[in-house]
Amino acid sequence: MNSVSLLVSSYRHLRASFSFATFFLLLAHVAVFPSSIQAAEAAYPLAWLAPAQTASQLGINSFSQSPILDESGLPAVEQRLPEDPPVIFPTHAIGSYGGIAHIIADDRGMFIAAEGLFTISPDLKTILPNLAESWSYSDDGLQLTVTLRKGLKWSDGFPFTTEDILFSVNDLQLNNNFMPVTLPDFIGLELYAIDSWTFVINFPKPRPFFINYVAQSPEYFIMPKHYFREFHPDYTNPDVIDERMEELGFSSWSAFMTTSMQKRLFPDLVNQPTMSSFKIESLSPGLYSYQRNPYYFKVDPSGQQLPYIDAVEAQDVRENEVAVAKASTGQLDFAGVRLPTQDIPLLKLGERGSGIKVNIWNRLHGSDLSIQANMNYKGKQKRELFLDVRFRRALSVAINRDEMNEIIYFGRGTPRQVTVVPGSDYFEPEFATAWAQYDVEAANTLLDEIGLHDVDGDGIRELADGSQLSFTVEYVNTETPKQISMELVVSYWQAVGLDARQRLIDRELQYSRSVSGEMEMTVWHADRTTDILFPINPDFWAPRKLAASLAMWSEWSRWYLTDGDLGEEPPPEIRQLQVWGDELSTTMDRERRIVIGKLLLAANAENLWTIGTVGLAPQPVVTSNRLMNVVEFGLWGWDIRYTMPYHPATWYFAQ
Amino acid sequence: MRKYVIRRLLGMIPTLAIISILVFIVIQLPEGDIVTSTLDQLSATGVDLSDDRIQNLRAQYNLDQPLVVQYLAWIGNFITGDMGFSYLYAQPVNELVWERLGYTLLITTCALVFTWLLALPIGIYSAVRQYSVADYTFTLIGLIGLATPNFLIALILMYFGYTWFGLSFGGLFSPEYLNVPWSWGRFKDMLAHLWIPVVVIGTSGMAITMRLMRANLLDELKKPYVVTARAKGVPPLKLLLKYPVRIAINPFISTIGLLLPALISGEAIVGVVLNLPTTGPLLVQSLITQDMYLAGSLIMMLSVLTVVGMLLSDLLLAWVDPRIRYERA
User: Fold this and answer.
1) Contact A326 B168 (CB under 8 A)
2) Are A25 and A344 in contact (CB under 8 A)?
3) Per-residue pLDDT tens for A310-341?
């Protein structure tokens, strides 16, 4: 075991300093700067921005199916489709059926978009109907009524009804045996069905953004009852379930159910019905095969049932280097999630002759880095320092964001603070630019004002009482290019006389040390910055949550979450943030909502609870030249589930 | 002889018991557990690593029980052949391991044969022609193989495999053969991919084998019995192979035992880089994510193989080299 873990760690170290891209470029003898990368203007079909019209509205009354289904013995396509299927307009052209798409397993969530009751518009704001046909809130926001499309069917042909929604929420999320700790979004919910197509949710307080949550996390709301009731003790004899669990190897039915809900790749998945465009057909070590879902509910404007592509083969690739190599040599029809920004030049190189197209999308991270100084740190001197707004401002203006943008992002990112994306209703330009200028002089002045002077002349500032000052940024190098960024940031801080150090830590440590407030400083990435998730969870702007991503105010959050039993009572201006945060997610008054959202963001721009570097970074999305209807420019991020607004079901292979 | 074997076998029981306890404790030592690390993997796709989710998952996975209870449950099942459940892959460990063991054995055996077929003759040649140009050349190549990290060789070979032979990156099969029943075409396709891991794993062991053989043989070649035999006119090749080589090869036999555990863990890093459907990547992943039962069971398998391998080595050595007698032991 020793030798193995030693190998692993030495391998990781070596790998850190050596990427496949570097190597590839060495062999290729050319280093191409991606001069052709341009953030193209977003252009989407207008139909994507509004609720999808249905077949009857467009006068479509004959439907067709993929030829591979012709001999399948299934009911006719008209019977498999819902009564009035939604029509999805492809972005370029009506497609034709056929083909197998090769992707890597991590991209399956992007190639096969999640289907839920609602979906998200490419404007990053609007929630649109999907499995649900319509919904309405009561005026006080305490009641939500949702109507499903009629005649929807699971991939095994079983009807999809309100029974499934009730099962997912009442029997799972609100069941204490399944969820000992109810998730905050579900607390106090009452859900009942009026008929097979209409259900009502009563909230304890107004929840105008509940639909955002449902749209963005569809998995929690649609579990096929007819399949999972056999695994649920309320419906099936527990002894029988235990026996089944024994067979499958799970410790409990709830562990099984959670694994299913997370869509993890495990053997029983092949039996589980889905509403998505593809259904998993087989799993073997290294390969997951999907077939088209013959009951998928969407059609194109010519009445063809979607998706166009017949099958997806997802290979298990665990190394970014291998994913990049596969993508750049044209072995994948679609790739995104495993492609780092730094490898854009290499991928562009692959455009010559490998039959691929490298689209440069923008990541939805408000900032790739959210630098967090722990204002609840246990050491008194450092806590006071981190609490001092002048210190945080000095840290911010000492950073040369333009240089970072050039070095790391080929100048294609946007230097900005941690705030919402530009198109947001809550956005003001100064939220992004406040204290984001590069001004060493100002940084020095601020640090001098605090009383941090270089007393002993070694070029490093000491604390006001003359004692040593050094602080460590502990972080995990994940998702965004944090390590290369922090190397620059630390050097900027050292240039203004701060003894800053950095340390890469293990993922688990990030969580436990963040939640217990033990880190001096850390770095995360600022996602949840669109109008879809910001109003529900303004996490970076108000201390209302304990998580690995939020290390700057764990004790204030704990105080909030335990109603004052634990943690520390926040000072009034912080308490105000929590009050605003609560109001933001509950007020039905749109004007008021925007005012509060802006107040929260303005408070951060002023106080820099967390410091940003560069956001809206370029994200390579590689597609095969044969794969059609993929938008050239999109936004890439969790808030919109990556490709959900861009309709992957309309992608097809050119003949 | 039988008594000796039985005694050795009995001695294994306390050894393995202690190992199992150590393994279990060591895996648990680092911060966090499988729940935080699976959630963390999911958080790469955006699920938040928040307190409430973690508590729920711990309860669902029975991870809130005391360590002793978890240990006893695991080891009890392990003895009966049930290696528990991998949280990471949401599958019983037995299934996971068995479906990968075949490929692992295939690759490591081929690599071993590859190493020995090349390294032993080269080692002999280097010893006989000490300080010749060929000796230096082979030594240099061997040392390069030893000094270059395996994964780098793997990446380079993958690159050339792609540019020269049009092989797909990683894996043991081309995409079209990944999920079809065995056929002649699939077998050929596998052979086309197999050489990369075999060469990569083989080269790392090559230098050591080569140098060991060379050093051992050099020791023997200087001994009086060789000189005598040569003076008496024994043909050089027959002399070489019949006496000094037989003796010089002993140390390899005594290390055969160590090859058994390497069958499972040897190709770990290469397996990850090359996307091989083998047990090595399982071991790495399970250790990183603290997937307790999977990691624990794999390491226990390694330990059992090590202990058994050592016994086999001792027996083999006694059989090959009559000078070593086991009766006394």
Assistant:
1) yes
2) no
3) 999 999 887 888 899 899 989 999 999 999 99
Distance CA A571, CA A586 (A): 23
Question: Is the pLDDT higher at A224 or at A40?
Answer: A224
Separation in Å, CA of B269 to nearest CA in chain A: 7
- Minimum-distance CB partner of A7 among B30, B59, B268: B268
Nearest CA in chain A to B278: A285
In Å, what is the CA distance from B262 to each residue of A43, A52, A163, A285, B256?
56, 58, 53, 21, 10
Instruction: Give the angle A77-A161-A263 at the CA atoms, nearest 5°.
Output: 85
pLDDT tens-place string over residues A501-521 = 999 987 778 888 888 899 999
**Chain A / chain B CB contacts < 8 angstroms:** 183
Q: What is the DSSP letter of A654?
A: -
Q: SS3 of B1, please?
A: coil
Nearest to B59 among A180, A250, A259 (CB): A180
CATH architecture of B97-290: Orthogonal Bundle (1.10)
What residues does each domain of chain B span? 97-290
pLDDT tens across B239-269, in order? 888 888 888 888 887 777 777 777 677 678 8
Chain A environment of B169 (Cβ under 8 Å): 322, 325-326, 329, 331
pLDDT mean across residues, chain B: 82
The rounded mean pLDDT for chain A is 90
Strand partners, A279: A291
Judge whether A282 is closer than 8 Å to chain B, CB to CB. Answer: yes
Give all domains of chain A, ordered by start, each with its CATH number: 1-114+300-308+319-362+621-655 (no CATH), 367-615 (3.10.105.10)
Among A3, A4, A338, most B C-beta atoms within 10 A, so best to mutate, is A4
Nearest to A181 among B55, B168, B277 (CB): B55
pTM over 0.90: no
- Residues A162, A110 contacting (CB under 8 angstroms): no
Measured between beta carbons, which residues in chain B are less than 8 angstroms from residue A319? 272-273, 275
* Cα–Cα dist B327/B310, whole Å: 17
| CB atoms inside a 10 Å sphere around CB B116 | 17
pLDDT per residue as tens digits for the range A550-604: 999 999 999 998 899 999 999 999 999 999 999 999 999 999 999 999 999 999 9
Phi, psi of A521 (to 5 degrees): -150, 150
Chain B residues with CB inside 8 Å of A284's CB?
A: 99, 178-179, 277
Judge contact between A46 and A15, C-beta under 8 A: no
**In chain B, what residues touch A478 (CB-CB under 8 Å)?**
44
Beta strands in A338-489 (DSSP E): 356-363, 367-373, 414-415, 470-475
- Residue A276: closest CA among A296, A259, A299: A296
Q: Cβ atoms within 10 A of the Cβ of A359, count?
A: 19
